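Lab notebook, bench 4. The sequencing result for the construct came back, and we need a structural model before the next group meeting so we can plan mutations. Quick request posted to the team channel:

Model the 3D structure of this chain.
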Amino acid sequence: MFYTLLEAAGTAGTTDGAVPGVGGGFMWISLIIMVVIFYFMIIRPQKKQQKEQEAMMAQLKPGVSIMTTSGFYGVVLDVVDDTVIVEFGNNKNCRIPMNKAAVAQIDKPEAETAEDTEEEEKKEKKDKKMSLGKKKDE
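Done. Here's the predicted structure in token form:
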């Protein structure tokens, strides 16, 4: 009995099995909306991340401090095609060639780090001199 009711409800009103009141245009609009959502949720962020990765790989040069995907910190010694030779720790004998894809993050280059520390020291000295001068006046 239930089967005959479903069969009657399915065939009553439509002859081609389509849902009554819903046209083919609604189907196309919903399909287009789904494609747009997939683009903005999946494809666009992936392309943006890929561009950032390529920009980071372009910055790889000798003397740059990096972090690998496994969490090791090291300094780049040489870059050859897709291979990077990295020195880990203070031991000069620990030099490992690795793929560029294993680089997760680039820190400041060694030269910039040294310059930054020198500038910070100069600022601290100036601040000390200025604070000493104020104390003498008061």
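The longest helix spans residues 24-58.
Will bring this to the meeting.
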